[in-house]
Structure prediction request, 112 residues.
Amino acid sequence: MAQTGEKRADRVLTFHSRVLAAVRRIPPGRVATYGDVAAAAGVPRAARAVGNIMKGCRAAAIPCHRVVASGGRLGGYGGNEGLKRALLAAEGIVVSARRVKDFDRKRFVFRK
DNA sequence: TAATTGACTTCGC
DNA sequence: GGCGAAGCCAATT
Prediction:
């Protein structure tokens, strides 16, 4: 078998799927940065790619609103960052001046 | 296949 | 604190 071992889950789990899976792992009341999600997907520098994927998350099962930019900045949300801010507030995350309060404390760290 | 785009990140002014 | 430019990555067209 294995041969090649290839495929692994790389075949069914593309970077796109990995990112979505990582975002789903973010518990309520917590937030993660694009860079963190990218790192969880296997590419710490793919923050931009993550943003692209988030743009197409469309699925309600993906709490894309829990993904923020570095420094606790809101980042974006399809042009409705106000909505993102409301969703975060609904989970207990306080956002002030487009920034997450106590971000360092609310930030979720992906664990292996 | 190649080129463009984008919800990023970091540094500098 | 705000604005601009460069760098890096994957998806999309």
